[in-house]
Amino acid sequence: MSRTSPTPKARRPDDLMGLTPEEYDRAIAILGREPTLTELGIFSVMWSEHCSYKSSKKWLKQLPTKAPWVICGPGENAGVIDIGDGLAAVFKMESHNHPSFIEPYQGAATGVGGILRDVFTMGARPIANMNALRFGDPSHPKTRHLVAGVVAGIGGYGNCVGVPTVGGETNFDPSYNGNCLVNAMTVGIAPADRIFYSAAAGPGNPVVYVGAKTGRDGIHGATMASAEFDEKSEEKRPTVQVGDPFTEKLLIEACLELMATDAIVAIQDMGAAGLTSSSVEMAGKGGLGIELDLDRVPTREAGMTAYEIMLSESQERMLMILKPGREDVAARIFAKYELDCAVIGKVTTTGRLVVKKNGKVEADMPVGPMVTQSPEYDRPWVRTPARPVLEADAVPAHDPGQALKTLMASPDLCSRRWIWEQYDYLVRGHTVQRPGGDAAVVRVPGTHKGLAITTDCTPRYCYADPETGGAQAVAETWRNLTAVGARPLAITDNMNFGNPERPEIMGQFVGCIEGMRKACLALDYPVVSGNVSLYNETQGQAILPTPTIGGVGVVDDVTKTMGLAFQRPGDTIILIGETRGWLGQSLYFRELCRDHAVAREVWAPPPVDLAAERRNGDLVRALIGAGMVSACHDLSDGGLLVGLAEMALAGGFGFAIDIADAVPLHAFLFGEDQGRYVVTSADADTVLDRARAAGVPATVLGRTTAEPRLTLNGAVLISVEELRAAHESWLPAFMAAP
Amino acid sequence: MKSAVILFPGSNREPDVVDAIERSTGRKPAIVWHRETELPDVDLIVLPGGFSYGDYLRTGAIAARSPIMNEIRRRAERGTPVIGICNGFQILCEAGLLPGVLLPNASLKFICKDVYLRVETSQSLFTNRYATGQVIRVPVAHHDGNYFADDATLDRMEQRGQIAFRYCDPDGNVTPEANCNGSARNIAGVFNETKNVLGLMPHPEDATDPVLGSVDGRPLFDALAEAMA
Q1: With contact defined as beta carbons under 8 Å apart, do B210 and B140 qualify?
Q2: Which of A35, A69, A136, B207 can pair with A140 through a Cys bridge, CB separation 3.0 to 4.6 Å?
Q3: Exposed/middle/buried for A209, CB within 10 Å: 0-12, 13-18, 19+?
Q4: 3-state SS class at B81
């Protein structure tokens, strides 16, 4: 076989392709010799942080992943849950942070393409996309360019493939100046008994390559995504893949058509680390070997080496293992869609990945040890120090109307219409709750059910107290699903952090996981899939810890989906949950107290009482189910007055509330206490009775009004129209600025 | 009523229009792949929305040369109703079955939102369930919906009653602000001269079910169902 010239261990190659010297030695031990260039490349990507989860694995194992409705938890391409009627929801969220920062349009577009493939690989028809985006300070010179490129890329890909982008979230914070976050989520529907998995089976079975041709793009993308950025990160642009949503659309249709036959034994998309990870994962999971003849791989250009073909991250490609003799079935379907389809190898009993090119063996490596002996680190970590509690009295009290207007026009609370109008959120004709609500709701085709979907995380809480922040992120998704009347079922997580080799960053990770674990257990809300993105750090500046959670729930009767818009004048406005007026880490604190002494400290975020969260949410869901509620909104960023204002804007009605409470007024109005909802009802007495019986605090605040004005204790704060203008104008104005 | 929905590589809004037709007629349309050269015996031909051939080259330009288009042209000439929605409209223009062309939106951005349309004439088999001047609310979702034809062509079309829909405000005023994509004379949909071919950028098929927010597109499909019954 061909080899690089043997070198003693003391003279390791200069470029270990991102492996540490110890990892390189481990590779030698597994092989029993020096790796070839191709083998070194394969080790490098398979053992990259991105593919191996070597820093996070130990902690991810602590997350609850089981429930009676979980069909498939973490470890496959996506998580699968039973939603009844013989159907399953298949979903996952995945990051494309590093590529999106280098090349925002293609980085974001291929992020969408990759997560779509993860879902339809499992046999599901994608029915909804979501995205969670974090950008740097709006005043940073790169921010506008990144927002424009990322949004256009997400739209450009999702719109073309014809999967509605139904919602998401966007935040701004200076910590993302050097590392934006693009977390994309796809939800699909499959027959519960027709889920496709990736484990290879049947020695001798053909290994079939389908989709787009392989080119020299994205080589070593997974390695790039596993390192910090420095001043030379712009040079990494060639590691970013280029997406072709048209090919993806054809690939979806062709794969689903083939899946309707009985030809497929196993299937895996070629995502990060391309042909390498797909073949290693399929062989590894099946405990078998795979032999590949790279001369049969469809390539975009002649003269590609084994190294380039194995490491290319060209998009819109899948690897399948077919039953013997079914190659023609696949060939016919892929020819209809004018896509490549080639038998490039076979399943073997050797347990080895053997890669040939031009008749020469370019790689011959044992799959089992490569997977089971992959590095796993118990990285040193330190607990994030506890922060002091910020007393409301220490925070300046601003005029409520002015404060509300400022908050509603701030980057994190202003309308995202400029973004979502660039996404086709309606295609396929099942979007019940459009962007802008607490959770999106998409009807499950052929049923009266809906899937409710949301993504949430409050990084400023996670930074101040990772455990509370991790719990809050999970709880907020649960609350958002509840607010539209859904039964929350499971989550996917996308863990975005800085450099795990720094103990304080690792401490953030450990803390967030612990909070998430507690929330998942308390809410019967397991993790079924996820993704970890580390090294989101530039020149020593890490992002805020951002464990983005994607939650999925079921609305049993989609016509009963609850919205946040006030429905009519005269409804009673009721606050559900307890308000202590928690201003630490609140948006009021951040946006309105910048020049005040308290702004120099990091304060404890609002505590998350998971028992109360559950009690309150279960009550609200029951009230919605019983038809006692006309509108419902969860309270989160900005607190009570912001939540009420959003309900007024959505419905075009005003409100008049009276608040005479012991808590200082500004803390009551803008505190971000958790586990709370606002509901409106024409039958307040029944709502209050039910709340009392459930042991849930419920307070009548006032009424909705025909006059489009916001009135507090008899004084008009602001008109709906003035508020709307402020709320709608920030983002378009920001994006239009020269 | 028997209908056929044509599928091009990259069509993606066919489920929406299939559902809309089924809601109005109780029958599912036949799905016909673009490589076919013949059509079944149908009363209505639908070119759905999407991104045929990825919008590469020019929207609708490649699909307009698909094998099935010759048969569609023959049927249209014989009077079979043809409706092209969004990408279907772009294909019909590129195929010469409708006058004009669709340019990129004036904003150069994809735009997805509800818009108001003024029904310009009830004198067609597509619009006879609406009143002339009626305002309807339906969504748009496109990047290239900016209708263009030269003034002489537009004048001729206006004289012949070939304008089907215009973008307007909620009160029916045809204003520049209501023109979501920069279309000439706010035009959202047009007929051919014999008014058996309709192309429009908005999506009436996505406004046929109360749970989706509007049923203002329903009369269009009801009218077709009645005419073909």
Answers
A1: no
A2: A136
A3: buried
A4: coil
Mean pLDDT, rounded, for A466-494: 98
A:B CB pairs within 8 Å: 89
Torsion-angle region of B86 (φ positive above 0: left; ψ -120 to 50: alpha; else: beta):
left
Mean pLDDT of A291-301: 96
Mark yes or no for CB contact B110/A425 under 8 Å: no
Dist CA A209 CA A385 (whole Å): 51
Q: Which of A337, A427, A445 sits opposite B13 (nearest CB)?
A: A427
Radius of gyration of chain B (CA): 16
Using one digit for the tens of pLDDT, what is the confidence trace for A223-238?
Answer: 666 677 776 766 666 6
What are the phi and psi torsion angles at B73 (to 5°)? Answer: -60, -45
For the segment A161-179, what is each residue's pLDDT rounded down to a tens digit?
999 999 999 999 999 999 9
Question: Cα–Cα distance between A634 and A613 in angstroms, integer?
Answer: 11
Query: Under DSSP, is residue B118 helix (H, G, I), strand (E, B) or coil?
Result: strand
H or E element in which residue A190 lies = strand A181-191
d(CA A101, CA A94): 15
Q: List C-alpha distances in Å: A44 to A39, A276, A710.
A: 8, 11, 59
pLDDT digits (tens, 9 = 90+) for A84-139: 999 999 999 999 999 999 999 999 999 999 999 999 999 999 999 999 999 999 99
Which is it for the CA torsion B166, B169, B172, B175, positive or negative?
negative
Quote the CA–CA distance of A233 and A240 in Å, as a whole number: 12
Catalytic (active site) residue A96: yes
pLDDT digits (tens, 9 = 90+) for A132-171: 999 999 999 999 999 999 999 999 999 999 999 999 999 9
- A89: tokens are 């929801």
Phi, psi of A475 (to 5 degrees): -65, -35
Cα A102 to Cα A184: distance, rounded to the nearest angstrom: 17
Shortest Cα distance from A446 to chain B (angstroms)? 10
Q: What residues in B contact A337, CB-CB < 8 Å? A: 9
B222 CB-contact burial (10 Å; exposed 0-12 / middle 13-18 / buried 19+): middle
